[in-house]
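Hello,

Following up on my earlier ticket. Below are the two sequence lines again, exactly as submitted.
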Amino acid sequence: MSEIPHIEVKDLECAYGDYQVLHDISFEVNRAEILVIMGRSGCGKSTLLKHMVGLYEPVRGQVLYDGLDFATGSDQEREMLLRKFGVLYQGGALWSSMTLEENVAFPLEEYTNLKRGHIKEVVDMKLSQMGLKGFQQFYPNELSGGMRKRAGLARAMALDPEILFFDEPSSGLDPISSKRLDDLILSLRDLFNTTVVVVTHELDSIFAIADQAVMLSPQTKSMIAKGNPHDLINNSTDDRVTEFLGRKGGRFSRES
Amino acid sequence: MSKYPYASQVELKETGDILVIRLMGKWVLDKAAPSFNEFIERGDIRPDVSGLMLETKNLEDWDSSLLVFLNQAKEWSDGRKMEFNCDCLPHGLGRLMLQTQSAVDSRVEIVEPKGQPYFAEEVGNYTISHWCDLREFSDFLGEIIVSFFRLFTGASRMRWVDCFRSMQDTGPMALPIVGLISFLIGVTLAFQAADLLKDYGSEYFTPAFVGLAMVREMGPIMTGIVLAGRTGAAFASTIGSMKVAEEIDALRTFAVSPIDYLVLPRVIGLSIMTPLMVIYANSLGVIGGMMVAKLTLNMPVETYIQETFLNISLMDICSGLIKSSVFGMIIAYSGCLRGMNCESSSTGVGRATTSAVVTSLLLIIISNSIFAVLYSIYEI
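Thanks for your patience. The regenerated structure is below:
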């Protein structure tokens, strides 16, 4: 079976100006698969994600969606691709001058021909799904960090995207909310066949949701492991991978 | 053996080729503790010592103060390739030391900060950075122009409601401050003119002087300056904060160009609003002049108004208004440019705001001079 992967990253090299952050990154994600990009702080996880969603142009290499290169695509092609993306940023990135309702309604107003009343219904539904019923008229600065993140997710999911990107979804969330978010990610995948790319270093989440994981290293500035996290922890011969996944802190692991 | 004037005490003893450091007393941060390096320099150590041992039998109390000392000791002994024996340290302290050492990840390369660059290097860096600035300037201008044309093809995502909102913020909200400043400028001009012209017996030219000065120069310039400080700064800080909070990225990933959505409404709004503000500023300047003429020269209001309109042509008014529209664009352009190029930190937003005001003032003054030359060539 020679199915084209939903997302394919080929020999990607990322840099900010002269400063190289990552090189030789290659992996594939199939439809309805959950990929976790993991690694220690500062290894370029978020940078990789931002290159995947087209916020930065790669120095070298390609990011292909169903075989279509994002960077070299025409404006129409890019817009068509972006329409299929939903991105949840670290802090939620809600537009602070708009209420929650306006934030979630924005993509619907931009991309659909729905009537105002219908948009409102969809927005209400999306917000209730995230446990934010009744907060429609609140501004982002009136909410807690966790609520902002959930509202950000409601906005990211407004157009029922085919691919969802999460940048550190569980940072700033309590363990229960974080677990709920993991469950939500799994059910989105199961119900809507959504492909999910998650940047995280939360081990619980990694083992709970990942079909596939890619591990980046700040030392080599490249990918050091690829595969299912359960297989990686059992079979990897690389100390850095088992140390990370097994939470073995080398010399300072807890003495029993 | 040496006694130190500290609550914490340390002694040095050499047994064979092992250096024993005895730590005693209270090692706490609110009491000055001896520095290891200072201590070791005074100690006159034999060059052939091969190990360092710590003794803590009489140590009473300790916190980070002791840790600093121990880390220096470790560094010193590592530097001399000596054995560092910390077996006698209290259990928690040894563990803490180990963690401090291992927190420094030897596998991560640390880029050494560059020292002071040479003169030529500095000139080069400066030139490159200004060249990049210039490119940024023109890139951004180009993007705005493209976005403006997209507006006519219907492909733009600009919302007129944002444009009106920016007009509301920059116009009516700024009326009190613009009004006050223009009124006072009118008053000042009238005083100066009346004083000077009285000597020549031609104080009846005061309305003409105040009117022309306001309409052609002072009205547009003062409004420009007030709006640069008020609105330009607000644009830069708003857009800058949005960038820090990834709100701009969020727009981009919804395929909405931040230029269409954030910049264009502001540029259009301000370029429409500034001339309107200038008309208002001009009127208040003339009223200021009129009051002075009435009070000091006893000139009737009707005469003042008549004299003003006799001496100001429509062309004079238009020349000021055209200029002010350009100033409006400059202010919005600088504010948005600095906001969009803001670094991702709170100090970055501060810097962007400052830089927006400075850039717009500079560009206003430069463009005003260009207008002066052009107007004089075309005799406007």
